[in-house]
Each structure stands twice: as C-alpha cells, then as structure tokens.
Here is the input.
Amino acid sequence: MRFTRVSFVAADNDVSQQALKRLRQRYGVVNQEDADSIIVLGGDGFMLETLHDHIYNHIPVYGMNRGTIGFLLNVYTEDNLMERLERAEIVRLHPLIMNAITVDGQSHEALAINEVSLLRETRQAAKIRIHVNDKVRLEKLICDGVLLSTPVGSTAYNLSAHGPIIPMGAKILALTSISAFRPRRWRGALLSHKAKVLFEILESEKRCVKAIADYMEVRNVVKVKVYEDCSTYFDLLFDPERNLEERILTEQFIQ
Here is the structure.
C-alpha cells in the first residue's frame, strides 16, 4: 500500500504529546477523515480506544509505543515513517459483539476487541450458566467471573486468568474462568470463532454481575450473549520483523 497522508493521535501523557508535536512538525498535519492511515502514539489502552473510534471507517492503524507494554504497537522511532508503513504487514481482525440484558429489561450492545468479561459485583460469588450454540454446556459455574477472548486479547486479561494464548489466524476464541470455585477443576474451553455464547446469571438479584466489553461496563446483567461480528473489521499495521503473530508466539516462551 502507498501512504501519503497520515494523521497522528496521541495519548494524554507528556511522552506521547511530545512525540505528537515532533512528528507533526516533520510529517505534517492531516485531518483524520482525509488520512490513509492513522498513527497512534501511546500504549495498548489508548490503541484500543482509537480502534473503537475508527472501527467503522476501515482506515489502517499503525501504532508506535509511548506507553508501558505496547503489545499492539510497534517500536517508536521518528525516522522513515512512510517507508515503514509501506512495508508493514496488515492484520485484519474482527471484534466480538456483546448484547447484555439487565435486571430491568434494558438491552445494551457493545463491541470488544480484546474480550468480554463477566465479573461479580458483590462479596458473593457469581453463579453463571453457560450455553454454547444454544446448548447448555455448563449448568452452574460458581466463580469470580468468566471471559470470552479473541486471539488478540488472549495475552491480556485472559492470560492473567490462566487462559491459553491463541495464535493469530487460529479462528478460535478462549472461554476462561476467573477464580472458579465449582467446578473446581474447570479452567475453560477453546471454541470456534463462529460459536455463539450465552451467559445466564443465576440468582441475579442476590449475586449481581457486571459485563464489560473492553472498557464499556454494564452492571446488573441477567443474560449476556457474545459472538464474533464477522461484518465488522479493523486493519492493524505491524513491522514485518515484529508482527503480531510473532509477538503472540514469543509471549508463550517468556520465562
């Protein structure tokens, strides 16, 4: 791809804002609606916010790490930006769509690039029934929570909850329990990316549960349906020597 008009966005911290100023002076200022690529300066959290902001306009996004981990971003350097963009590899990803019904009957919908997680709101453990493709697969999970993760989100909260790291292109979602009390030995499951998962909250008024799609939170849910939104996509750009698939592979061998 040829890139001639790039628009820069930066997180609200000194390091990112200073980089933004220097790069705009060097490469110019372009409105986001006129750009053929968006350059993100910040960390993984800000990258997720940017992807959500631009998920429907299909502009390729290239990140440079000015945050902490930077799993979704490339190494920061100000030189040869256009050349880096042209040789970058494109990774097309589909988000999850969450439809959450609350105790008062309201419906809330949101997209998740990393994961949809359900978490208890009170001191009492949550009780959750899990349906996969319209069939009950787990009658009662007593836990702090449960999550459904995409491959790109498998190294985030999912990994912290001892879920599996999923290679890009595997067409798999990770269903992972969070501090499961019963069944004690159930750690989760690997599902097809076409799977439709329904979480049914048992004793929902007594054992309140909230649902979170990346950073959108819905409290007091009774049912949460989650599946991959195949009609929606976003394109991430990565330097070929450190692409997303390589990062996920490397993450599995960290000592």
Summary: The two ends are 37 Å apart (CA to CA). DSSP finds five helices and 17 strands in the chain.
